[in-house]
Amino acid sequence: MALKKSSGPKESSAALHQRRIALLGLGVENRALARFLHARQIPFAVCDVRDPATPVEGVQQWRIGEGYLDDLTDFDLLFRTPGLPTLDPRLCAARRCGVEVSSQTRLFLQLCPAPVLGITGTKGKGTTTALLHALLATDSSARVFSGGNIGRPPIEFMDELQPTDRVVLELSSFQLQDLDQSPHIAVVLSVTEDHLDYHADRAEYVAAKKSICRYQTPGDILVVNRDCPTARTFADESLAALWTFSTTAPSIPGAWVADGQLWACCSGMQPTAICPVEDIPLRGRHNWSNVAAAVAGALAFGAPATHFAEAIRSFAGLPHRLEYVAERDGVTYYNDSLATTVDAACAAIRAFDAPLLLIAGGASKGADFSVLGTAIAEANVRAVLLIGQEAPHIAAAVQQAGAGEIVHCCHDLAQALDTARHLAQTGDVVLLSPACASFDQFASYAERGDLFKRLVRAPGVV
Known about the structure:
This protein is of the alpha/beta class and 462 residues long.
């Protein structure tokens, strides 16, 4: 279907030459933006707490040190790194003085010549984005580009885009927080809570997410998870046409699971059976929802469903998301290091019928672990191996749920895995699904997951 570009504030790269620009923080996104600005000979400054580890071309001014955000009134356009909250008091003070606060994502939406589909939710964004790209790629009538929180800043492929292309962006609450323009198609997965160490509270977290559809027009499309009460409230924020997806009820227009089949339907059309759910290669019912979301999004973007089943069957999944690692001595190992929330870990636990030895714990995100404790107590979990800063809180939740005898507190991931090996029996599953961030012991969830895989696969280890 043809989509009209949403109306909204516009920026032009030519107009950027007239602005006094500063990049706040030199993470992945702002490094990509620095290259974009330098290629156009647009002057900019960099403000960061420390000197960059690698050179950055085109910087006209450096402001380095603990006070790098103290007075920003000598600039009139600031591009914050996603890790810097838009409600930071120093940014609020700059706004009160007339300084505009923006981001790489916001600039991309202002400049992008092609229609954009944005995906958000608490978990499942990466899987849904990657699968949606694969579904759209079955349609040879348009090129597909994807990026955002999934890894590639979209400003990197701006110069390649044409109006006939399709763009898919995974968008976190950090990236959505200061938008004043929404994607043409917005897909909202399950929204619970996350990053309460960053957002003021759950309400502010959800409000940040709602920017994905708040500025849509009647010519746009909003696709929401019908099974999630919070996701359904996003429709109150949007003027767009409403589509849904579900694993419990027909969703027309949209996609749903019924009678062991994945179905899809556009407005005014007859429902089409895409494939049996047993053909979905991703483990867990929560992934049925992600696949339904991707199918609904691809149909909303105008791709025919002819080859969807083939693309779904061949989708291998992404690293660190219920990723099969190995089978050793009759015990199977799965890496779910990206499960950094309670809901994600609970979904992983429910994805297995075999007895589980669960490795969990890590850095705090302000989560309440009572639901996780209950899920562990009610599931076929034989042992819980806890690591990191949140280990005592998870242990207390499991104890409160009546399963404290299965808890083992460990010094680190290596000790947890070694303990799991000694406790495991033939037919068991050892699952790394932390329910926590990684930053107490690792640089990222990927580093944590990669170490788990290396330890599992290490030769000579039994």
